[in-house]
Amino acid sequence: MSNETPPKSALREFLGNLVSAPGRIYRAAFRTGTPTTDRTRSNFIFQNVFLHLHAVRTHRWSLRWSTTMGLGIAALAAFLITLVTGILLMCYYKPSPEDAYNSIKDIHFIVPTGRFIRNIHRWAANIMVITVILHMARVFFTAAYRKPREFNWLIGMGLLVTTLGLSFTGYLLPWDQLAYWAITIGANIAQSPREVTDALNITASFDPGGMQRQLLLGSDVVGEEALIRFNLLHVMVLPLLLSALLAVHFWRIRKDGGLTRPEDADKLLGPPPADTYPVFTEAPQKTYHLAAIVRGRTPAVNQAPENTIPSMPHLFYAELGVFMLTVLVCVGLAMFLNAPLKELANPSVPENPAKAPWYFLGLQELVSFSAFMGGTGIPAIVLIGLGLIPFLDREQRGTGEWFGGPGGWPLVKQAIAVGSAATLLVETIAIRFGWLREWFPHIPQLVITFVNPGTIIASIYAVYSIWLVKRYNSARAGALGLFTCFLCGFLILTAIGTYFRGPNWDFYWSPAQWPKH
Amino acid sequence: MSETSNHAGSRLDPEPIPRRDFLGLSSLGAMCASLIFAGVGIFRLPKAAVLSSPSKKFKVALPESLPAGQGFTPPGRSVALFRDEEGVYAISLVCTHLGCIVKSAPEGFECPCHGSRFAADGAVAKGPAPRALPWLQVSGAGVEYLVDEDATVPPGTKVKA
Question: Is A296 part of any domain?
């Protein structure tokens, strides 16, 4: 005889279970209930694989608008938008020289919402470049790269390079005039170490430039193989790389103790406003004392939690707000401004002027002095310099403050003046009087490679920042000057390339003066 | 002396490099070496052995009337052919800077991408181009000529018309 009492009616129970199934599925997925108490708010975060990269509580300093301006989240949002729109575009895009251009035309003119989605993709990509650069500037100027965040600064640089790589490989895909000549120029920049090996007469035995070009193009001409490779990079290799780097980047933020804040952040903030959700509404079931045992710098280690507030809802709503704002901006721009599509690629006639998208025009200005230094040398020096900053600046003063450190905002203002003046002066000389080749027609190429407007500008920046290190007796002061100078140089060279260069890369005050054909 | 050597291998008086450590380090080194080898090796596949480029040699018939100093560019080729009293010659139109196609200008050639200028014989006159535009090998006579874009000749080499 069984002890189990038989169900009154299995059929009735079955029906009852069926009716309550939706609710049970929901509760099986979201086990923590509505996040209304400290405990459920905490559970809401660490029971969710996507949210648990966040700390359960966030310091009030991190939520101030002026701490981050939401730039990192905006960059992430832009990436997610390009991811979704990019997958949609791949439904119709055909990566072959014969079909690529027409498939983009189909997307633009025939596919329902095709033009809209392509516009969003393009604007999100632009916004991603802008926000990544601004995010980097924010981290630099608040000295947030300092110990223990040095490695995350390096990861961030990897993300910057990957973002630019994604942009570059992206505008190659339509196979229009811009695409074709950008691939040509890009591949030849990869080949530009030949400028040095040729000058040294060793290209026949040692030719890294030629090998790089051939690896990129899969051929010695720009054609189908090149398009396939750039497509592979754009839709597969670089997005995966970016995602992997992003995971490390976010994980590190958490492991490095959240966002940087000044030592005296709690004093600066003062007590929380009266309407802030109270720190502890109930006796916590999970105490923060346990967190102190965990190795690392979680936000609560060695600190009272008084100035932290629950991440749900405060942090998440802020992040969602930035995310929605980014979507809004992308969609708004996409409604009114179309992504460009030039004429079909023509291998015998480049456009005149042949201009890259705006974010590469500073580089184009530099390669118009020397292919190797402008396209490879100076960018490499800049990247190495940026990467070394957190290891050279081991100071404490000014961490977490805008323009923190010796010199501060007055130094940055001076650096803006010096950096802009140096760039404008050297550019003016080069534009007005030409350069070494015009003055000494038989000068060896190696001299021009190493002494050209680009390297002179970079040297002035370097000398100025070394002077700053001496003057303020601080590596941070030098870094502040150097970074500010590079930002100014980037902006000015980009502006010159965008607005003041016309046919044959000649200088014109306005496009109205361009010669007519 | 013999006393101590008897104890070799004990924890108190270890060998200079314990055998296990040596084997462990060797295998670690072997692993690194093979990883590096494999890492370099995977580039063997994307480095194309057969290049899918079209033939660089082409035949061209020059027009009857081609004034000296004016170039003739066969369709689809980035080469300008010239004819003067001394003969026929070909100059590549691919900019030596970053590979844009230069176009003829009154004083020679100019590049639209980064502003390089070349003299009529291809020598660099201005801008970032590191080398002169190469002269290409031309053979044949009469009306039809064979041009080889892969073979360069010293500037000034002309084929008798």
Answer: no
pLDDT digits (tens, 9 = 90+) for A476-493: 999 999 999 999 999 999
Domain carrying residue B148: 57-153
Predicted confidence (pLDDT) per residue in A353-408, tens digit: 888 888 888 988 998 888 889 888 999 999 999 999 999 999 888 888 899 888 88
Residue type, A419: G
For B109, the enclosing helix (H) or strand (E) is strand B108-110
- Cβ contact B130–A449 (<8 Å): yes
**Could you tell me which of A371, A439, A403 has the C-alpha nearest to residue B111?**
A371
Query: Chain A closest CA to B5's CA: distance in Å?
Result: 45
Looking at A261, A296, A317, the residue that finishes a domain is A261
Residues near B58 by Cβ (< 8 Å), separated by ≥ 6? B74, B77, B146, B147, B149
pLDDT score at A282: 52
CA–CA separation, A140 and A135 (whole Å): 9
Instruction: Confirm or reject contact between A203 and chain B (CB < 8 A).
Output: no
Q: Is there a domain that residue B79 lies in?
A: yes
| pLDDT score for A293 | 47
ipTM above 0.90, yes or no: no
Q: Please give the Cα distance from B100 to A221 (Å, whole number).
A: 12
Say if residue B76 is in the same domain as residue B111: yes
The first and second tokens of residue A106, run together, are 């189909």
CATH of the domain at A160: 1.20.810.10
> Tens digit of pLDDT for each residue in B82-112?
888 888 889 999 998 888 899 888 888 988 8
CB pairs under 8 A between A and B: 109
Instruction: Give Dmax (Cα) for chain A.
Output: 111
A463 against B56, higher pLDDT? A463
Residues B135, B144: Cα–Cα separation, whole Å = 18
- Quote the tokens at residue A393: 């600046």
Mean residue pLDDT of chain A comes to: 87
Whether A191 and A132 map to the same domain: the answer is yes
If interface means Cβ-Cβ distance under 8 Å, which residues of chain B face chain A?
43, 46-48, 51-54, 73, 75-78, 97-101, 103, 110-115, 124-128, 130-131
> Are residues B122 and B147 located together in one domain of the fold?
yes
Answer yes or no: do B62 and B11 share one domain: no
- Give the tokens for residue A420: 């802009």
Chain B residue closest in CA terms to A351: B112
Residue A452: both structure tokens together: 């050209």
Separation CA A194–CA A205 (nearest Å): 12
Residue B3: what pLDDT? 46
Q: Which of A201, A504, A517 to mutate to test the interface with B (most CBs of B within 10 A)?
A: A504
What the block records as the tokens of B110 is 């100019």
Q: Whole-angstrom Cα distance, residue A269 to residue A93? A: 52
